[in-house]
Amino acid sequence: MIKVRYIKTKKSFNLKRVYFFTRIFYTKASVAADQVQTKTTVIRIGTRGSPLALAQAHETRDKLIKSHPELAEEGAIIIVIIKTTGDKILSQPLADIGGKSLFTKEIDEALINGDIDIAVHSMKDVPTYIPEKTILPCNLPREDVRDAFISVSVGSLADLPAGSTVGTASLRRKSQILHRYPSLHVLENFRGNVQTRLKKLNEGVVQATLLALAGLKRLGMTENVSSILSIDDMLPAVAQGAIGIACRSNDDHMANYLASLNHEETRLAVVCERAFLETLDGSCRTPIAGYACRDEDGNCLFRGLVAAPDGAKVLETSRNGSYSLDDMILMGKDAGKELLSRAGRGFFDS
Fold it and tell me: Cellular location of this protein (predicted)?
């Protein structure tokens, strides 16, 4: 039986009603309804339960069915909703309660324990380490990496009056905003899903916010965007706009399914950016941005940034090289080493 999960947010900001038709399988880590796995089930997809996470899980399911028509059979793919610690605790900054792994830990545990077969993640939420007994061999084609500016009163950051409050849960965004617009105030712990943040904006908690354009596109909510920030104005988070899919390291069957979905250009870009992040030993307390892409000659252009939390200092660097795995890993690591050296001790303490 198909279970219908209906997610609705009331607001005057043109938020769309989001309907998800989800077959849910209950696991120890899941808060989903207690449905029974059918005999025809081939793949159990683990995901968080936010509208965006479910949209990404459904995108994964649809791509699997398109590549493997036998999976279109009723019940062949089910979606397992797993509530993570990061979803449960919204009153504190992520850095104070454990960082990015809070959005992936329970899902990884369900994968390792065999409660799900594959795990779908927003790659920017994935720590630089991958848990033992798992691999992350697949990235879907990357969405737009830019950040969207959203306000009910003005069209851009530059238009905000001095003293205006911008809401964000990202130190990366905060530091870059304050570096360019030191007269603005940034509300740091502006957490919650897209619908929650837009609701707070509409209620006047803040005058503006920044959200990943990729998420708004996947939710079909781009009508809320006031303007789109260029890469020069707001360098994106490492792996922003990329979906990653993990499986157990000893599960060749699932690995073969995922191989058919992998978008190699995206995977290499994400590997480059994550090599940069790992070298910097980045965490939720560290404002770091990084972006790798193909240039007009087909080579890799990487741009990296570290900033003081208050935006007083921003250090940037770039690299060019061939669009190949080894070279892109080296570029990311080398860029990270350079910025570590330039930043010096105490740079992130301001």
Answer: Plastid, Chloroplast
Note the pTM of the prediction, 2 decimals: 0.85
| List 125, 147, 251, 334, catalytic entry | 125
Q: Which residues pair with 289 in a beta bridge?
A: 305
CA separation (Å) from 187 to 57, 121, 201, 209?
30, 26, 12, 9
Q: Does 87 participate in catalysis according to the annotation?
A: no
Beta strands in the chain (DSSP E): 3-7, 18-22, 43-47, 77-81, 118-122, 134-139, 147-151, 165-167, 185-187, 208-212, 227-228, 243-248, 288-294, 300-307, 314-321
| 3-state class (DSSP) for residue 249 | coil
pLDDT at 347 over 60: yes
Question: Phi and psi (nearest 5°) for 187?
Answer: -85, 110
pLDDT tens, residue by residue, 267-302:
999 999 999 999 998 655 789 999 999 999 999 999
Angle of helix 51-67 versus helix 194-202 axis, rounded to 10: 140
Residue 97, pLDDT above cutoff 50 = no
